[in-house]
Amino acid sequence: MSPRSPEPRQGRATILDVAAAAGVSRQTVTRAMNDMTGISQATRERVQRIAAELGYTPSRFAKGLVQGARTSIGLAIPDLTNPYFPAFASSVVEAATARGWNVVVDDYGHGTGNALDAAARLAPQVDALIGYLGDHAVAAQAMLGRRPIVGLDDPQAPAAGSISFDYAYAARLGLERLVARGCRSIAFLDSGQGGIAAGRGSAVSAAAAERGLQLLKFAAEPSAVHAREAVTAFLAGKAELDGLLVFNDLMAAGALKALQAAGRNVPGDVAVIGMDGIPLGELVSPELTTLSLDLRSVGRAAVGLLEGLLSGAIEPRASDSALLLRHELVVRQSA
Amino acid sequence: MSPRSPEPRQGRATILDVAAAAGVSRQTVTRAMNDMTGISQATRERVQRIAAELGYTPSRFAKGLVQGARTSIGLAIPDLTNPYFPAFASSVVEAATARGWNVVVDDYGHGTGNALDAAARLAPQVDALIGYLGDHAVAAQAMLGRRPIVGLDDPQAPAAGSISFDYAYAARLGLERLVARGCRSIAFLDSGQGGIAAGRGSAVSAAAAERGLQLLKFAAEPSAVHAREAVTAFLAGKAELDGLLVFNDLMAAGALKALQAAGRNVPGDVAVIGMDGIPLGELVSPELTTLSLDLRSVGRAAVGLLEGLLSGAIEPRASDSALLLRHELVVRQSA
DNA sequence: GTGCGCAACGTGAACGTTCACGAAGAAAGC
DNA sequence: GCTTTCTTCGTGAACGTTCACGTTGCGCAC
């Protein structure tokens, strides 16, 4: 048995297998496979045919090693089942695809995982990272070494690049709307998770204090069902309620359900405002008034930042590497 | 200038940079970085510290080349903004992560892309592929060479592994429900896209014929807004309608909106049944009765199939490589 | 003091591809 | 006929890591 049989049964065929089968050299196979010049049309076709017969596909490792490709980015998100994140992921994938990059997606919400686990899984696979990393951005950067990170919603300790949201502005906008509608007893349904999620709650509290508003706060895990249960429990208490600002649209959708189940009319009895502006808001009844984010622009911005960081056009942790985006009030039916 | 300066400014640091800076050999750095035996604790820590200072991270290409890792799978889906697909993607990512695999996600719905473009982008990056490939499964297999593909919803020309859905069964279940409710004028809102999507429509037609039912069919692009417009236009026509079966839940949600806008009570005037069983169905009003799929089990099954194909435990295109899953009627409020 | 074993560390080879260069042969110009 | 040019193809080296060895030095038993 020769060390390299003409048609290896196991393991992937290599370029040398194809070369041997075609009676040419490595380089000629390379020329044929990559549509390079310096090869006759006849040879090109013959080699391609033989390659296909052998099921040969070039090793991405060997190719990447010699070419030094930088084309894989990681995307770390907490929960693909919360519609906000696929909407965001979709725009990241679109922007990355336009640049010829691949996106390795890691959803760290399963089980007890956190962003650091996701970073650890992605670190050996990618050239850069985009993600909701919260407090773990620093540790993630250590894992990534010199490869850039664009962190979302990390205004405290921004990563090399960062995209944050002006929650103070959003909170003012939301409360203003509720007050303008005549709401007197306003509550904020927060996310029960700390970390990344804390910014919204404190911004709303601050905005309420600024206006001299008494603000009731309660919290739930960030899902529709949990929000529904939390609102039901809240309504069972004595508290008055005629205006409700909610951590995100998904939870707001759950809140709507609970209010309706409790016989409260929305927006007649209780006005509800969500946050994020996901398409779901237009499908629920009543349609959700929300503090909307242009999610496609968020993804584009993140990938654009990353491109700048990778090329060196943008300095890490500089003024132009930290973006602050604003929500916009989209008035529909719920408030 | 020596060919390898102690602290290279540009380009990633290599194992040799670390070795030189620490005054040890490659192999010792390897031992330190990978927590191997045969190294003193003092040296291990010193090397790790120096590696961190240099921002060294091992090249995935070199590592993959020598270790022959098979840990990246591609996931090709048409549209991340349709909630069905992230729900599916989430379960694939979860199952893949549990096996230590990474998932490269490609969303080919942007612009004019199709599944073949996605396969072409993914082919150089992954060791296997899961996806909604439709007619392109054969062409995709050519790009993947010997690497296995698990295709979804491709009963005609199954890939190496395939997961299909028993639409005949689902259609009978749905129509049965509508008839049992007393519906006489039943329509099916189909997806305007051919290819992958055609199976549902023909199954519903067949099931209707089987029952001797007259079935009205109309179609729209598979999004909530398009479905809403299509239903509005349909209602503006003369046709009677008291039962509506819809291609998927997202479109059904749009249909609900249109029916309500036209003053039709659901389910009083028109009963509506969706398909897929995505969480959205519980958030709309009335809550959507649907032909539900256990999406987590679909992802698990796909990854399990892939694992079998990769390990050789499952033969491509064999009886055990083609799974047929059944929908289940989940009765909520809309029918 | 000789031999042995073990811990700690180093070196050649290999993974599969592309790049840079070189060589052979044919066609073309004079 | 000779050189030149162009097309077609082949060969050494390199990418950065791990694997399988080999080597050194030290302690210890006899």
Write structural notes for this entry.
The structure is a homodimer of 335-residue chains. The N and C termini of chain A lie far apart (78 Å). Chain A has helices at 15-22, 26-33, 41-54, 60-67, 84-98, 115-122, 137-144, 167-180, 198-211, 224-236, 249-261, 295-311; strands at residues 72-77, 102-107, 128-131, 149-152, 161-165, 186-191, 215-220, 243-246, 271-276, 289-292, 322-325, 328-330. By secondary structure, the first copy, chain A, is an alpha/beta fold. In chain A, strands 2-1-3-4-5-11 form a six-stranded parallel β-sheet, sandwiched between helices. In chain A, strands 7-6-8-9-10-12 form a six-stranded mixed β-sheet, sandwiched between helices. Chain A has three domains: 15-66, Orthogonal Bundle (434 Repressor (Amino-terminal Domain)); 72-165 and 295-326, Response regulator (Rossmann fold), CATH 3.40.50.2300; 167-293, Response regulator (Rossmann fold), CATH 3.40.50.2300. The radius of gyration of chain A is 26 Å and the shape is elongated. The longest helix of chain A is centred in the last third of the chain and has 17 residues, at 295-311. In chain A, helix 5 links the parallel strand 1 (72-77) and strand 2 (102-107). The structure holds a DNA duplex (30 and 30 nucleotides).
